[in-house]
Design a protein that fits this description.
5-stranded parallel beta sheet, UDP N-Acetylglucosamine Acyltransferase, domain 1
Length: 318
């Protein structure tokens, strides 16, 4: 036992020495970093406010909407001010500013954000409707609200996007990456998304920071709305790197649409697995031509190939 204790002490000493080497990952002060668990709780509380009839607060024995909303808003405001006060220090503008001034700015931002909740709810109302209208497997809207990962990813993105627009560092990305880990859907908080947005299935979707999406857009699993290249690294910051998708566009599974100058026009249908790096005119249908299957039935038969005709149904891969 004495030998084991010495081994543990030696390991601890080596780690403490390693912590003193000035690595970026060495900072251990819990007071200088946001609390991810608190930020996730803020999302959960905002979900209760956005869907007051679906996600009730059980803290009150006698439930009333006013009591529920008041308690949630007070709790969110307190924690959001605290977390924003911390992350503002990541911005060069606020790095050397006194804590009182930072706290006042965090309070202002938090109140501005909370005033945006009715607008967020208005967008989410359209998203629920788009999911119901667009999915014949949806039996009712409650099923969509409680179980569809696409709607949850959109909800978190709409919350995070408002904080992003208010200039809050770090917290919006923590929110959307949490949704990413829960749903497999990666939407950067900087992405601008219009009304009636529907994500079906959703796993593997990537939507980049400077993407702009119009109204009534539907996308399926595995779609990438990305950049053509990120070789420039930080030099590309604040440049339009991701595509613009105009109104009434449908993008089927596995399609990749890349580049900041790429614009997909209104009413376009993009077929499954298409790879697009140039703009598409309004009303076009884009599909992959001359698909080929190779197959054999057993070892005694040679491999054969068959070309698939591009019929009307081929690019609707769901």
């Amino acid at each position: 036992m004495h030998k084991l204790e010495n081994e543990i002490n030696g390991i601890v000493s080596n780690l403490l020495n390693d912590y003193s080497q000035g690595k970026d990952i060495d900072t251990v002060s819990s007071f200088d970093h946001p609390d991810k668990a608190v930020i996730i709780e803020i999302i959960e509380k905002l979900q209760k406010i956005i869907y007051p009839g679906c996600f009730k607060n059980n803290s009150y024995r006698y439930y009333t909407v006013r009591n529920n909303v008041t308690m949630l808003i007070e709790d969110i405001l307190y924690n959001l001010i605290k977390q924003i006060s911390i992350v503002l220090k990541y911005s060069s503008e606020w790095k050397n500013v006194g804590n009182d001034i930072t706290a006042n700015e965090a309070e202002r931002i938090s109140l501005e954000f909370l005033k945006k909740i009715p607008e967020i709810r208005a967008y989410i109302e359209t998203d629920v409707q788009a999911a119901f209208d667009g999915d014949p497997a949806a039996y009712n809207k409650d099923e969509i609200i409680f179980s569809y990962p696409g709607l949850y990813a959109i909800l978190v993105n709409r919350i995070a996007h408002e904080l992003y627009l208010l200039g809050v560092p770090l917290i919006p990305r923590i929110m959307t990456e949490y949704a990413h880990s829960e749903t497999g859907i990666d939407i950067h908080p900087g992405a601008t998304i219009g009304k009636y947005f529907f994500i079906d299935h959703g796993t593997g979707i990537v939507i980049g920071e400077t993407t702009v999406i119009g109204d009534n857009v539907k996308i399926y699993q595995g779609v990438t709305l990305g950049a053509l290249s990120t070789r420039g690294g930080q030099k590309l910051k604040n440049k339009k790197r991701h595509p613009t998708i105009l109104d009434n566009v449908t993008i089927y599974s596995g399609a990749s649409i890349l580049g900041g100058e790429t614009v997909v026009g209104k009413d376009v249908v993009v077929g499954g697995n298409a790879f697009i790096t140039k703009s598409i005119p309004a009303g076009a249908k884009v599909s992959i031509k001359n698909q080929e299957l190779r197959y054999n039935y057993d070892s005694s038969h040679p491999v054969e190939s068959a070309e698939l005709e591009q019929d009307e149904s081929w690019y609707y891969i769901i």
